[in-house]
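Z., the sequence and structure:
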Amino acid sequence: MKEIKKVFARQLRKEQTGAEKVVWEQIRNRKFRGLKFRRQHVIEGFVLDFYCPEIKLGIEVDGSAHRLRKEYDRQRQAVIESEGITMIRITNKNLMDRKRSIIDRLNKTIA
């Protein structure tokens, strides 16, 4: 099962959404505070859009599909947070309307 998730994560990296590309461009190559982020990282059987192991921070970019699976997302987030990981969720719409919003959220979360 773990190997299947890794293959799935690899596929997701190749097929990033527009909103995920915006986030990745702002945090890749240690652009944000010198922190290393990973894309589509598997934790406890779930794939996080972005993850920084140094500060145990996960970022989820929620598209329209997430409106239909709120309970699943709540349970998934609870499992991930039980590992000591802080989660930030941002919707595609908010991100695309205000491209700096993810950096603002990151700064507020880390401060």
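The helical segments are 2-14, 18-27, 70-81, 92-97, 101-110. The mean pLDDT is 85.

Let me know what you think.
H.
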